[in-house]
Write a structure and sequence with these properties.
mainly alpha
């Protein structure tokens, strides 16, 4: 599913808002009131129409129809159902490999929407609704979008494609945890001084503390997540990719509609 100018503009807009939402505490003054409980509802309210804008722009650029929306819903439901299987225990989150493979087949636009909707549905399913939810939606959307931006979607097949997707899945799994750390780290006031966020400090100093925080706290979750994603991608990836591509071919998303005159 190709990206057109409108799809690119919509993705750039939602990504820019997401980057600002994650990074603004790093630029905040020492006297600022830091709390995602205040900004998360506004981010969520902005995110939903932007996701719709991505879908509409992709449909306008590619001529997709209701069958594509139906596939999006089925895959989002599957991703939401996979997440509780690991419940995040020790970083075991089997939904990641499906988001990577689906983003590869569906493309970056629908991949972003799929990742975001899957995380939204899983939050409702598991009761994980909170200030962190819109940030999880954005981060998972980026994971799926990145898979759709990987090279040679029409030519690369077989073991090389599986190896590329497994490598991407490993990197994306770690980066997802790192980005989500950035969402919560500035608001934890009980940390040791060597890893805590200091409002108003120079950005390089705070980033150095953030790296130390990630190494000390979340790496033990991020690495198992990456391992599970790599293992599932290598073991199930070829079968799932063939099934997804067969479904998209049979749905004929990009086939032009033809109407015959009534006889």
């Amino acid at each position: 599913m190709r990206l057109g100018a409108r799809s690119v503009a919509a993705l750039l807009l939602v990504s820019a808002i997401g980057v600002a939402a994650f990074a603004w505490p790093l630029m905040a003054a020492p006297t600022s009131s830091l709390a995602h409980a205040n900004d998360a509802p506004w981010l969520f309210a902005a995110l939903l129409p932007l996701l719709l804008a991505v879908v509409v722009a992709t449909i306008a650029d590619s001529g997709l129809d209701a069958k594509a929306i139906a596939m999006l819903g089925v895959l989002a439901a599957a991703g939401a159902a996979l997440r509780p299987l690991g419940a995040g225990t020790a970083g075991i989150e089997p939904m990641f490999f499906l988001m990577v493979l689906s983003g590869r087949v569906l493309g970056p636009g629908f991949g972003f929407v799929l990742g975001s909707l899957s995380m939204f549905a899983s939050a409702l399913l598991t009761g994980g609704v909170g200030p962190w939810m819109p940030f999880q939606m954005l981060a998972m959307g980026w994971v799926s979008m990145g898979a759709g931006l990987l090279p040679a979607p029409d030519r690369l097949r077989g073991r090389r494609e599986s190896a590329m997707l497994a490598a991407y899945g490993a990197v994306a799994s770690v980066l997802y945890g790192t980005v989500m750390n950035l969402q919560g780290w500035p608001y934890i006031g009980s940390l040791a001084s060597g890893v805590s966020f200091v409002p108003g400090d120079p950005l390089p100093d705070n980033l150095a503390r953030f790296v130390a925080y990630c190494l000390a706290t979340s790496l033990g979750w991020d690495l198992p997540r990456a391992l599970v994603t790599v293992t599932a991608t290598l073991a199930l990836g070829p079968v799932v990719l063939r099934a997804l591509r067969r479904a998209t071919r049979r749905a004929a998303f990009e086939a032009p509609a033809r109407f015959k005159a009534a006889e």
